[in-house]
Structures are given as structure tokens and as C-alpha cells.
Specification:
The complex is a heterodimer of chains A (290) and B (388).
Chain A lengths: L2 H4 L1 H28 L1 E4 L4 E4 L5 H8 L1 H31 L2 H12 L6 H11 L5 H8 L13 H25 L3 H9 L4 H12 L1 H16 L3 H6 L7 H10 L4 H26 L1 H4 L1 H7 L1
Antiparallel strand pairs in A: 1-2
Chain B lengths: L3 H9 L1 H18 L23 E5 L12 H9 L2 E5 L5 H13 L8 E5 H9 L12 H6 L17 E13 L10 H4 L8 E4 L2 H11 L9 H16 L3 E5 L3 H6 L5 E5 L11 E4 L6 E8 L7 H11 L2 H11 L9 H7 L1 H4 L8 H4 L3 E2 L7 H15 L2
Parallel strand pairs in B: 1-2, 1-3, 5-6, 5-7, 9-10
Antiparallel strand pairs in B: 3-9, 4-7, 4-8, 4-9
The chains are: A mainly alpha (290), B alpha/beta (388).
């Protein structure tokens, strides 16, 4: 093999690698340097001093928001999953034209900007509005209760905003399901429920894994929903990082916190993929073999 | 077909080595980055005057000018033949500062020739070297017409870097048709019967001094202990759900939709609130005054146009239009007689032309006492409070 041909894969990778270098690696380098600085803006600026204490300090000082973000993102992911799976299943059952229409109906609201959609929820959930009225009648909230500026509103906003990220991967994997397998299960005396639990669900697991990752990871770092729909005790870790950068101007702590969040999410994803099984993640290979 | 040794040869060597090389390169590049602020204020460059032409970008708070087709911005464009980009992107002093700080630290103004920030932030920015000094010779109209009591400013002796835009009072907005109508003092705001129906401001220098005055501290001499006691009180009230939200300008939305019955707010914001049954009240324990200042950032393009805007705004007839629309306290003398003929309701509005009796119990928004570290500590304590 000639030298030139040996390097073709690298030439092909070069544009993508350059992009990653410019817009990921180098900014990460800047942030890493900032995370190890000390000092303050008003007393002479920041200096690089290998301040490793920024990391444990930022973790202990913001543990409440970290736990809360985990809880909100987790709840939103679970709710999105419970809503998306039946919906994706129903869409996959439809014939061609209806299927496209329903898929479009799922995606259409997301042609509007993220921010506008979240602000629209503020209008829907205002205190003397119809939604709050219904909730009060059903005694789900007290008579002078509210939905805005509560955790409920923030979780609802997160679920809504990340719904298509859950629906589409699940839909894609349900659509690829070979119905003959379900037929075969029924031939072997499986009930509908058993067929679902032992054939459909495992075979659509790749879609579920992808959907969960695509929903949980961005939801964890979200700050828009907490700002617009939340109140005094709904701040998530994204809000805290924003406050540290823009208001307190404590750049080292903010950078250290950002790195820790990245590491935390990376660990969670790795554990999740191990638990869900890499076969489930690489589901296509399994199907191709059978 | 490749054999396995050639395959592993291609795959094996670059990976980890390249990754380490990239990381080292990144860290080296990053370490060359500029981080601190530039020199202090007195070495700041003087903004150049001259004939204003071309484009100019101005940043301001919302609701501070009539931006319409017949408004002040349009008049200014016509008067000088300029193309003005007027952006209302300032919602909170510190957030705006946070956005601009990296640019200003490297001498870049982000395209803006002029912006309006509250007096205490203007001073901090000047001390950090982010503002240009003003040449009084280019501001003749301003200094001919400025109110005598604003000619000098303890935070800006000799008016080196700031020209007042509008001033105002921080107090309590109530919805008169609700139970909030009974609120007249800061103590009333914290009455449990309004639990969850009250907003406070994220602006620390507005919210905390009002609470300190409620707790009986001396407005001429707030101590560090006073600040901490007030913030502890606010933490208690926030934790038990008395406060619905801490807001910038967004309290006006909560008032409009009736989500709250009262909010700490700024006296001239009536135009931002979409209902008529609201009233601004000065808390009985004392209110807070502030003056927002026009400043020119370092690296500002077209500073001649910035000077022109300052002079234009200080013409009494233009200031009358601004006061009519904005309903805040004007820094220009001789505006009241013009408004008495044009719009007597505004001329007699005590929030626009406050009588001494209204201003007497008010104090100017203070910085926390002590060194920069002390101020930072108080800022962090307050931020911990409002970011739950």
C-alpha cells in the first residue's frame, strides 16, 4: 500500500477533527485554565495558580442545585418516556399518510424557538388561567395554589421541550420492528402482554436508550425553564453556573463547576450504557445477525 | 485485504499521542489568554468629539424612551442625519455587565457607542477602566441645562464619565383592586397573608437597603452587620415561600397577569404594566432613589454621535417628550413649565417631579461597605439567596 493511501482515512477525518479542535478542545483548554485560577475581578483580576480547591469547593457549595437538576431531569425523562412510547407505537401502527401527518404534528411546534415555546407556557399556566382553574377544581392544588414558580411547572416545561428527542428515536426503532417476531411469539402461546414485554420492548430498547440519553443530558444542564417557569427554589445547576459567570463573576468556580458537571454526566452515561447493555445500544448489529 | 498487523499499525499509534498533544497545545494557548482588567479610571482615554455622522448603537433599559416612528430616537436621527440602532437589552445591571465584561476587558465595546447603567455600576466600570472620560467642551447643552443638584455627583466628582439619563425611586407597586391595596410599608409586604404573592428585585442595591431601613438601620451608615442581618431575614422569608420570585423587569408581567398582588419595583414602570389598577407607593420606612447614567465604553465607535445624543437628550423640549413617555425623574432643569402646557397630568405627577417631602425619607442606592472583597462577599451571599 502506498504512503498516500495509508493516510486517506486521516484526510477524511481532518475537517471533523479541525472543527472539534477549534470549537471543543481549545475552549475546553481555556475553561480548564480558568478553573485553576484564583482571585477576583475587582481585586486585580484572576491569576493562574493551580487552584485545585475550586473543584471540591464548587461541588459542596452547589450540591442542592446538582441534586435538584438530577431530580428534575430524571422526572422529565421518565414522563417523556411514558408519554412517548405509546405515542410512537400508535404512530407506527398508522398507514403511510396518517403516519407522516402525525409525525409532522409532533415536530411542528418545534419550528418555534425554544424560548418562545417556554414563554408560551407562562401564558398557559398563569394563576387565574384555565389550567390552574381545572387543577384547583380537581383538588390537585389548593384553592389559592399556583402552577407557575413551582417545580411542577419546571418539570412540565422540561418534559414538553424535550419530547421530540424522546419520540423520534423510539419511533424509529418501533418502526424497524419485525412483526413476524410478534406473530411467532403468539404462535408459541404468549399473551399480548407477554409478547410486548418479551419481544417488543427488548427489541425497541436501542430507541429507548437513545431517547433517554438525548433527553436527560440536555435537560440536566437546562436553565431556561427554571428561569421562566420557576420561582425561588427551582434553580438548576445551569442557572447556578450562569449566575456564577454573569453576576458573581466568579469565573474559576463557574468553570470548575462546568467541568464537574461534564464529568458527572459522562459517568452517568457510561454506567447507563453498561447497565442497558451495549448490545441494546448497538441493537442493529444484533438484528442483522438474526 | 489488510492483514491484522497493518490494521493495528494504522489504528494504534496516533490515538493517545495526538490527544495528549492537542490537550497540551490547548492549555498553552489558553495560558496566553488575557484575563485581568486594564488600568484604573483616571488613565482612561477621553472620548473624541467632532461632527456626528453615520451609524450609532445605543443600549438602554426597556421603556426608557419612545422608540416609535414619531419618538425621540426618530427625532434624533432626523436632527443629525444619523442611523441609530437603539437596543433595549439591559434588564439587570450585573447581567448586562457580565455579558459585556470580556469584551470591555480587551478594550472592545461590542459595537455600542453609549449605554445606560445605574450609577453604582458606572463607578465600578470606570474604576475597572471600561469607560472613556467625557470632554465637557463637547457637552455644552448638557451642562447648560442639567439640574443644579446633579451638576456634581459624589460617585463621579466633576462628572468625568457619567451623565444622568433618568432617575427614579424604588418602592412598592400594588394592585389596588386586590388585597395588596392594604400594603403601605415593607413590613406589610412580608405579612403571611400575602404568601407567594409578592415579588422582590434581583437588584441587590434596591432590595436589601429597603429591608435594612425596615429593620431600623441608619441609611446614612449601613454597616456590614446590617447587610447580613437583612439578607438573613430575606432568606427566612424566601424559604417559607413568602416571596414568589426575584425579578428584573419581569415583575411587570406578574403584575399584569395578576400572579402577584405587590412587587418591589421602579416608579416609572407604569407603561410596562398592562393594567390600570396599579399604584406605586413609597414604603413608609423610606424609599430608595437611583439615577441611571449615560456612559461611553472604551473602544466605542462614533463617540461624536454619542455626545450628540447626550446633548440632544438635554434639550428641554426633547426631555419633556422623554419625561412624558417614560414617567421617571428628569435630570434637566426647565422641563416642568413645558410639560405644564403640554401634559399637565405628567407635570403634576409627584413621581416625575418629586416634591422634597417625597424625597426626604429616601436614600441613594448604596454599595455594601468595606473593601472589594467585602462587597464581593455580600454579593455572593445575596446571589446564593436568589438562586435558591
Amino acid at each position: 500500500m502506498t504512503i498516500r493511501r495509508r493516510f486517506i482515512p486521516y484526510w477524511l477525518l481532518a475537517p471533523g477533527a479541525l472543527w472539534l479542535l477549534l470549537f471543543f478542545v481549545i475552549p475546553m483548554g481555556f475553561m480548564a485554565e480558568q478553573a485553576l485560577e484564583s482571585g477576583s475581578l475587582f481585586t486585580g483580576g484572576f491569576t493562574f495558580s493551580w487552584e485545585w480547591s475550586n473543584f471540591p469547593d464548587s461541588l459542596s457549595g452547589n450540591s442542592e442545585q446538582i441534586v435538584r437538576s438530577f431530580y428534575y431531569a430524571g422526572a422529565a425523562t421518565l414522563l417523556a418516556l411514558l408519554i412517548s412510547y405509546p405515542l410512537a407505537y400508535a404512530i407506527a401502527q398508522q398507514s403511510g399518510r396518517w403516519r407522516l401527518l402525525l409525525l409532522f404534528a409532533v415536530i411542528a411546534p418545534f419550528f418555534t424557538t425554544y424560548l418562545i415555546r417556554t414563554i408560551a407556557w407562562k401564558t398557559i399556566l398563569y394563576d387565574s388561567g384555565p389550567v390552574v382553574g381545572v387543577f384547583q377544581t380537581l383538588h390537585l392544588i389548593p384553592q389559592d395554589g399556583r402552577l407557575l414558580a413551582t417545580s411542577t411547572a419546571v418539570i412540565a416545561g422540561l418534559t414538553y421541550n424535550f419530547l421530540p428527542f424522546m419520540i423520534l428515536p423510539i419511533y424509529a426503532s418501533i418502526e424497524r420492528l419485525d412483526l413476524r417476531l410478534i406473530e411467532a411469539a403468539k404462535d408459541l402461546y404468549a399473551s399480548s402482554t407477554q409478547a410486548f414485554l418479551r419481544v417488543t420492548l427488548p427489541m425497541t430498547a436501542p430507541g429507548i436508550v437513545a431517547g433517554v440519553l438525548l433527553t436527560f443530558i440536555p435537560a440536566f444542564g437546562d436553565y431556561v425553564n427554571a428561569t421562566i417557569l420557576g420561582g425561588t427554589h427551582q434553580a438548576m445547576i445551569g442557572n447556578k453556573i450562569q449566575s456564577l459567570f454573569l453576576v458573581e463573576r466568579n469565573y474559576p468556580e463557574a468553570a470548575a463547576l462546568s467541568f464537574l458537571m461534564m464529568a458527572l454526566i459522562l459517568v452517568m452515561v457510561v454506567v447507563y450504557i453498561r447497565v442497558a447493555g451495549t448490545e441494546a445500544f448497538m441493537g442493529e448489529e444484533e438484528e442483522a445477525k438474526t | 485485504m489488510r492483514n491484522s498487523s497493518e490494521q493495528s499499525h494504522v489504528r494504534g499509534w496516533p490515538g493517545p499521542l495526538v490527544a495528549v498533544a492537542i490537550l497540551v497545545a490547548a492549555l498553552t494557548l489558553a495560558a496566553c489568554g488575557d484575563n485581568g482588567g486594564s488600568g484604573g479610571g483616571s488613565e482612561a482615554p477621553v472620548a473624541k468629539g467632532g461632527k456626528p455622522t453615520g451609524e450609532v448603537t445605543i443600549s438602554n433599559w426597556p421603556g426608557y424612551i419612545d422608540p416609535g416612528a414619531n419618538g425621540t430616537v426618530a427625532e434624533f436621527e432626523k436632527a443629525y442625519g444619523l442611523d441609530v440602532k437603539y437596543i433595549e437589552d439591559i434588564n439587570d445591571n450585573l447581567q448586562f455587565f457580565g455579558k459585556l465584561q470580556p469584551l470591555l476587558a480587551s478594550g472592545n465595546s461590542g459595537g455600542r457607542s453609549l449605554f445606560v447603567v445605574t450609577d453604582w455600576l458606572a463607578k465600578q466600570m470606570f474604576d475597572l477602566g471600561y469607560l472613556e472620560r467625557l470632554n465637557h467642551a463637547d457637552l455644552k447643552t448638557v451642562f447648560n441645562n442639567i439640574s443644579p443638584q446633579l451638576r456634581n455627583d459624589p460617585a463621579d466628582p466633576g462628572r468625568q464619565f457619567s451623565i444622568p439619563w433618568q432617575g427614579g425611586l424604588t418602592g412598592i407597586w400594588v394592585i389596588t383592586s386586590s388585597e395588596g391595596n392594604q400594603i403601605h410599608s415593607m413590613r406589610d409586604l412580608f405579612d403571611p397573608k400575602y404568601k407567594g404573592k409578592v415579588d422582590l428585585l434581583t437588584e441587590m442595591r434596591d432590595t436589601v437597603p429597603l429591608v435594612m431601613q425596615m429593620q431600623g438601620a441608619d441609611p446614612k451608615n449601613f454597616t456590614k452587620a446590617d447587610w447580613e442581618k437583612a439578607i438573613d431575614f430575606l432568606k427566612k422569608e424566601t424559604d417559607n415561600g413568602q416571596i414568589r420570585r426575584y425579578t428584573g423587569n419581569e415583575y411587570t408581567e406578574d403584575l399584569t397577569s395578576g400572579n402577584i398582588v405587590a412587587a418591589l419595583g421602579w416608579s416609572g414602570d407604569a407603561s410596562l404594566i398592562g393594567r390600570k389598577d396599579v399604584e406605586w407607593r413609597s414604603p413608609t420606612e423610606g424609599c430608595d432613589t437611583f439615577f441611571d447614567q449615560m456612559v461611553i465604553p472604551v473602544g466605542a465607535p462614533n463617540t461624536a454621535a454619542a455626545y450628540a445624543f447626550m446633548n440632544f437628550a438635554y434639550r428641554p423640549e426633547v426631555q419633556a417628550d422623554i419625561a412624558d413617555f417614560v414617567n421617571y425623574v428628569t435630570p434637566v432643569a426647565g422641563v416642568k413649565p413645558i410639560l405644564e402646557k403640554k401634559d399637565p397630568a405628567v407635570a403634576n405627577n409627584p413621581l416625575v417631579f418629586p416634591p422634597p417631602s417625597l424625597l426626604a425619607p429616601c436614600s441613594a442606592d448604596p454599595n455594601p461597605p468595606g473593601s472589594a472583597e467585602d462587597q464581593q462577599a455580600i454579593t455572593e451571599k445575596f446571589q446564593d439567596l436568589i438562586t435558591g
